[in-house]
Amino acid sequence: MALVTTKQLMLDAQKGGYAIGAFNVENMEMVQAVVAAAEELKSPVIMQTTPSTVKYADLAYFYANVRAAAEMASVPVVMHLDHGSSFELAMRALRVGYTSIMIDGSHEGFAENIAVTKAVVDACHPSKVPVEAELGKVGGKEDDLDGGEGDGYTVPSEALEFVNATGVDSLAVAIGTAHGVYKGVPKLDVNRLSEIREVVSVPLVLHGTSGVPDDAVRECIRRGICKVNYATDLRIAFTKGVKEVLDANPETIDPKKYNACGREYVKQYVMGKMEVCGSVGKA
After folding, report:
1. Residue 82 known to be catalytic
2. How far is the C-alpha of 221 from the C-alpha of 196, rounded, in Å?
3. Is residue 169 part of a domain?
4. Could you give the CA distance from residue 5 to residue 232 in angstroms, rounded to a whole number?
5. Does 21 reside within a domain?
6. pTM listed for this prediction
7. Nearest to 153 by CA among 116, 178, 120
8. How many domains does the chain fold into?
């Protein structure tokens, strides 16, 4: 089927008490793996790219890969810009054909974040493309994303004001997660999440979920998270598969052989996270 937007998928997830997994893809094999997992489990799925990923190969390359995979799939597939770093990048993704856009103004002041988010919303909504924003700062570092120390937790009252002022379709909240690899077990402020859920009606998003215990993710979904982002662990899985082949057969020169193993590792990882999100059978 053709690519779809996140709008109805996330509203359905919100109503049904589950979440949609959003998986960062870096190459064709990762795209294939994510779609294969979604097909096998009959799950809707979101694929996404960060600014550094599209800098490496351009928006059009990744869009073409995901569009081709979606057209051959029987499940809903979304192409999402993750952590859009500027209005200009968001507009480029919109023109290329991305079906969901995130604008991340969380590194700016509150008023500036509102201004850039509203500008992206006003530009995307006429094309019926939903917009995700972030309020608070998810810590850690991944790609070119530096969230600092991650102590800028989302304030519930500010979340309400932000959503009302921008008309954003979903909101990524900061409750203690971080991008990249955790040094210990993350401590999430789930009570804060519940407080945000009480005052904000739009679907909520959890970033920095690679390495977060599955039970903690399930609790966040129970408290209102409708989209869960995974990135670092997909890279780890793919690299593990590649290394396995090359360690066993150092003379291997055919990329298809080691990439296929990486693809299978990513597929198995994604299937596990779809189970955690509760999206199995929801396509």
Report:
1. yes
2. 13
3. yes
4. 24
5. yes
6. 0.92
7. 178
8. 1
